[in-house]
Automatic annotation (TrEMBL):
Protein name per Swiss-Prot or TrEMBL: Uncharacterized protein
Domain of life: Eukaryota
Residue numbers spanned by region Disordered: 1-39
Organism encoding this protein: Favolaschia claudopus
Compositional bias of kind Polar residues: 1-11
Compositionally biased tracts (Pro residues): 30-39
Length: 165
C-alpha cells in the first residue's frame, strides 16, 4: 500500500506552508522534540591534598639537611647530661655553630674566614653585597676572600631554594 491510498486527505495538498490535515495531526499541536538529557556530572575531585597531608616547610628543609650531609647525625641528648637545677631550654648557640660549620665545610670556606664571619655575626643566607665594606676590611677580609664568601652565600641561597641544602 502506498501513502497516497492510505491517507486520501493528504494527496498532493501538502507542502512546507500547508501541513496535512488528518485526525492524528493538528498544526496547532505539533509533537514536541525530545528533551535533551545532560550527561551526569562526575563528583568533584580534590585538586590539592589537605594541609594536614602535606609536610611543613621546616620538615622538608630538615629532611633535606639530614639526607644531604652524611656527617650530620642526630643524636638525642640523654637526661643525665643536665643537672636537675638547670633550665630546660634549647641551646641555639650550639645549633647555629654546627650549622655554620656545615656551611663552611660544604662551600670550602677556610678556617680563618669562618672565624672572621663569626666575629661579624654572619649567618648563612644573610644578604651580602659584592663589595668589601670598611667594617669587613677592619675584621681582616681581603678583596678576593670576600668575593669567595659572597659567591658561597649566593650558592647557598640557590641551593636552599632548589631544596639541595
Amino acid at each position: 500500500m502506498c501513502a497516497e491510498t492510505q491517507y486520501p486527505q493528504a494527496q498532493k495538498k501538502t507542502d512546507e506552508k500547508t501541513p496535512p490535515h488528518s485526525q492524528f495531526f493538528d498544526a496547532s499541536n505539533p509533537i514536541p522534540p525530545p528533551a535533551a538529557i545532560a550527561p551526569p556530572i562526575p563528583p568533584p575531585v580534590a585538586a590539592v591534598p589537605p594541609p594536614a597531608m602535606t609536610p611543613s616547610l621546616s620538615d622538608v628543609l630538615l629532611t633535606a639537611l639530614l639526607t644531604s650531609n652524611p656527617r650530620f647525625t642526630w643524636q638525642p641528648l640523654s637526661s643525665s647530661q643536665f643537672r636537675a637545677s638547670s633550665p630546660t631550654r634549647a641551646s641555639t648557640a650550639s645549633c647555629a655553630t654546627t650549622f655554620f660549620e656545615i656551611f663552611c665545610d660544604t662551600y670550602n670556606i677556610d678556617g680563618e674566614d669562618c672565624t672572621r664571619l663569626k666575629e661579624v655575626g654572619f649567618r648563612p643566607g644573610d644578604s651580602t653585597g659584592p663589595n668589601l665594606d670598611d667594617d669587613l676590611k677592619g675584621v681582616g677580609f681581603t678583596f678576593f676572600g670576600w668575593k669567595r664568601i659572597h659567591s658561597a652565600n649566593s650558592r647557598f641561597k640557590s641551593d636552599l631554594s632548589a631544596g639541595l641544602f
